[in-house]
Amino acid sequence: MRHGKKFNHLGRKAAHRKALLRNLAISLIEHKRIDTTLAKAKALRRFIEPLVTKAKSNTTHSRRVVFSYLQNKEAIKELFGTIAEKVGDRPGGYVRVIRTGFRLGDGAATAMIEFVDFNEVYSGKSGSGESEKGGKRRRRRRRKGGGGEAATTAATTTAVADEEE
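Request: output the structure for the sequence above.
Response:
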């Protein structure tokens, strides 16, 4: 029965699970993106989101609370520095879990977990994917039939434009 089972125990005792999540969180803070199994990524998301929320208020108390979870001064500096600066206005959802397939050795589902604001490809903060006017471009597929009134109107419009030149 699953009475009261609120989180994934990951097949480990409590101390081992705590150490695992601590090490994964430190690696994620340091590298901004890590590859792991899907179950560990989902457990890590629940572990690190409250810590990032605490990091948004840079007080001595919040630093000590987060330090009690991570036990790593460099990770605390990075979390309260660059990460808190980037996620300052975001109300939640600081990390993203992307499934990456299955591991060859044991067939475990793997995933990539990353901070949302540190990936310019998905967030659209870089120039890629946007036109000069500022809007996003859409790519549409053409119809395969090609017939109909719309096709003849377009052909007529281009023919008229060619004659005017």
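The longest strand covers residues 95-102.
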